[in-house]
Amino acid sequence: MSNRFAAQPEILKTEGNEILDKSNRFAQNVNKIYATIEEMLKSSYMSPAAVAIAREIEGYREDLGKMTKVIRNYGNYCVKSAGIINKNESNIIDNVNTGL
């Protein structure tokens, strides 16, 4: 196994943007779930068991928010890393060219 570091910034950026898109869809779905729960809890037709289930689901709101943030942060990390790799490569090329 080689000790060589190889990165493909184009792929890293593309994947990072896809992760960001997925984190946005995830956040939208979480918001839909909780909007539905809020509407359910306003209804006078809910059974006590349904209210208990809705309250249980509501207890996960903070965790789902944290998950959304972690996914978004990872996507941003990938996109930012791609930019740093491109910048480093450009700096190396510039340094080689100025040394000639």
Description:
The chain has 3 helices and no strands. By secondary structure, it is an all-alpha fold. α1 packs antiparallel against α3. The longest helix is centred in the C-terminal third of the chain and has 39 residues, at 61-99. The protein is rod-shaped.
Helix content: over 70%
Distance separating the two termini: 33 Å
Sketch the major β-sheet: none
Low-pLDDT segments: none
Shape: rod-shaped
> Helical region count?
3
Strand content: under 5%
In round numbers, the mean pLDDT is: 91
Radius of gyration: 23 Å
Which structural class should the secondary elements be placed in?
mainly alpha
Q: Count all strands and give the number.
A: 0
Write the layout of secondary structure elements.
Blueprint: H1 9-42, H2 48-58, H3 61-99
Helix pairs in contact: 1-2, 1-3
Labels describing this entry:
mainly alpha, rod-shaped, 100 residues, 3 helices
